[in-house]
Design a protein that fits this description.
single chain, 121 residues, mainly beta, seven-stranded mixed sheet, four-stranded antiparallel sheet, 0% helix, elongated
Length: 121
């Protein structure tokens, strides 16, 4: 069974840093784009950053210059380095990946269960 497992969330003071990791495991033939989304209480889930299989990155305007997404294809893992954290970054962060389980199967999106990031002022 294919799954994504996030780690690295926690409580940090404003201005601090955290590094999130998300590892894909199970029967995986190929992974296309990987990314991070977040959802704050009472708000819709939003894209934070994503990265293509070739390494092209995309960031939400609110995190540009502060967050860096990267991936290790050999480990089927995506990372999110978060610096200069602000209270408004507080949310549950979800990992997402477009994966194909078998040769010639379609890519479909998978989600992790989320990890809480709380930034205190």
């Amino acid at each position: 069974q294919v799954q994504l497992v996030e780690s690295g969330g926690g409580l940090v003071q404003a201005g601090g840093s955290l590094r999130l990791s998300c590892a894909a495991s199970g029967r995986i033939f190929s992974i296309n784009a990987m990314g991070w989304y977040r959802q704050a209480p009472g708000k819709q889930r939003e894209l934070v950053a994503d990265i293509s299989s070739g390494g092209t990155t995309n960031y939400a305007d609110s995190v540009k210059g502060r967050f860096t997404i990267s991936r290790d294809n050999a480990k089927n893992t995506v990372y999110l380095q978060m610096n200069s954290l602000k209270p408004e970054d507080t949310a549950v962060y979800y990992c997402n990946a477009d994966m194909a389980e078998y040769f010639l199967s379609s890519y479909r999106p998978y989600w992790g269960r989320g990890t809480q990031v709380t930034v205190s002022s």
